[in-house]
Structure formats: C-alpha cells, structure tokens
Design brief:
The protein has 304 residues and is an all-alpha fold. The chain is built from 12 helices and 2 strands; from the N terminus they run H-H-H-H-H-H-H-H-E-E-H-H-H-H. Strands 1-2 form a two-stranded antiparallel sheet.
C-alpha cells in the first residue's frame, strides 16, 4: 500500500476518534456538574469500557487476548501509564490549577514525543515540525487564555506535566503494540490495566450508584435524561470507540504524527462546547484555533 494511502487511512480513523473524544469533554462536564467527582467518573468510564470491550473481544478476538510472559510488562506499563495515569494526573492537576493551564501543559505531549523520536530513536525531526509545535502551543494558549488569573500550585503543575508525559507514552507505546495485536484486543488489555488501577483507587462499592437515576438537564431546553444514560454515552462513545479507532490509526501513522494531529482535540472540544453547552468564542480564541490548525497542517506535511 502506498505511503500516502496509508496516511489517509490513519488520519481518517483518527479524525473520527478525535471527534468522539472532543464530544466526550462537554458531555463529561454535564456529568460532573450533576454531582459526580472526577475520580468517580473516571472509574465508571474505564471499568465500564473494559467490560464492554471484554465482551466484544471474547467474540471477535479471543485468541488475541492471550499474551506471552515477555508481553506482560509492556502491556501493564502501557495500560497504567498511557491509559490510567493520563486522565488521573490531569484530574488531580485541575483541582489545584486552572483547567486552561493544565490543558496547555498536558498538550506539550507532542514535544516529548518529538524529543523521544529525535534523541532516543535517533531519527531526524525537521525544524518545520518544531516550529509547528510552537505555533500549536501558542494557539492553545490563546484558546484557553492561560494568562487570566492563573495560580501555579507546584504540585498541580507537576501533575499536569506528569499527564503530558503519560499522554506521550500513550502515543509512543501505542504504535509498536498496535503493530503486533488486533485493535480490539489491544484496547481491551490496556483498558483492563486501567480498570484494575481504578478498582484499587475507587472500588466499585464506593461509587455513587444512587446518582445514576438523577436527571441531567440538557442544554438548549432539550429536557433531561438520567445520569446513567450520560455515563453510558461516555463509556461507549467517549471511551470504547475513540480508543479503538486510535489503535487502528496507530497501524498507519507513526507516534509523532499521531501526537501532533491529536492537538486538534482541544480545539474540537471547544467547538463542541460552543454548540452543546452554549459557551462562546472571542476573537483571540478564534485566532488560537487557526494557529493550532496551521501548526498541525505544517507538521503533518513535513517531509522528515
């Protein structure tokens, strides 16, 4: 298959996954507004996603769920650091510093990926890519307006950088793992590690099951639905589908390109929030979105 065709397939899968991730942010915000704690929502999300994926994998990828002894450590490390810790550290960070600041720090992940490619894998990274990353980060700063009253709690900043490193591990580790295993099986195994982590941190019997029947008011006077339906959406469309699609994309895209393309996720989430939650953009935020888009296009079309 031609390289351009492989890239088109990879970007197609990742675009759909990115859309699901972008929509998931505002939907998750509805759940949090309704009374769920961040850790509780994460536990519902990861444990529920693992249960759904396990059922699917047992039907279509049963043999792929088997693994050798030498695969245990990479799978556990990837599931723990790349899947569970990415969102856990981010949630800890936003409790101590502003969401915008935490988001900017977390999305320095493509820089860590580029550094890994350059100095660990010993591959050349073009100056155009570095400049594109700079443009994208400036654009994200304009979107989130990080200069408005930031409180740089040291531990919060540390956790946000931890989330960035975990996100980089997600992209770097996903590429080789996806080359050896079926996407459904890989998503199931990595999510299983994350589920074990959340079972320990937030045991299922401590989750607020009584809240699931609580009505969640939808925007634009669309009425209300039970919180259980919102969580169900987050589990399937906000977790199972995008993670699965990203793992398919990793078969066609290298980790650097995938990480940079992922910078469009916060832009997409902002656009979804504009329509779903009634949040509005100001001129400088529109400029920021344009800079992110330009940065991603420049980076993805770089030859090296």
């Amino acid at each position: 298959m031609a390289k351009s065709s492989r890239g088109l397939i990879g970007y197609s899968y990742m675009t759909v996954g990115l859309f699901f991730f972008a929509v998931n942010g505002p939907v998750a915000k509805l759940a949090l507004i309704s009374g769920l704690e961040s850790a509780q929502l994460s536990a519902f999300r990861i444990e529920g996603a693992f249960f759904c994926l396990l059922i699917a994998a047992l039907f279509v990828s049963r043999q792929q769920l088997k693994f050798k002894k030498n695969e245990i450590l990479p799978l556990v490390g990837y599931g723990f650091f790349g899947v569970a810790m990415t969102q856990f550290l981010y949630f800890v960070a936003i409790k101590r510093i502003e969401v915008g600041v935490a988001l900017i720090i977390e999305y320095t992940a493509p820089i860590f990926v580029a550094l890994y490619v350059r100095f660990v894998m010993k591959k050349e990274v073009s100056k155009r890519v570095w400049f594109s990353l700079f443009l994208a980060l400036v654009g994200l700063s304009l979107i989130t307006q990080v200069w408005t009253g930031s409180k740089l709690d040291p531990f919060g900043v540390l956790c946000a950088f931890g989330a960035a490193i975990a996100l980089a591990i997600y992209f770097i580790g996903g590429e080789p793992l996806a080359a050896k295993r079926d996407p459904i099986a890989l998503t199931t195994l990595s999510m299983g590690v994350g589920a074990i982590f959340w079972i320990i941190v937030q045991p299922w019997w401590t989750l607020p099951w009584s809240l699931l029947s609580k009505p969640v008011t939808l925007p634009h006077e669309l009425g209300s639905i039970p919180l259980a339906i919102v969580i169900g959406y987050i589990i399937f469309f906000g977790t199972v589908m995008p993670f699965w699609l990203y793992f398919i994309a990793f078969k066609y895209l290298d980790s650097k390109k995938a990480a940079i393309f992922g910078l469009l996720e916060p832009v997409g989430a902002s656009l979804v929030a504009l329509f779903l939650l009634g949040e509005s953009f100001i001129g400088i935020q529109i400029l920021g979105g344009a800079l992110v888009l330009i940065g991603v296009i420049f980076a993805e079309t770089a030859r090296k």
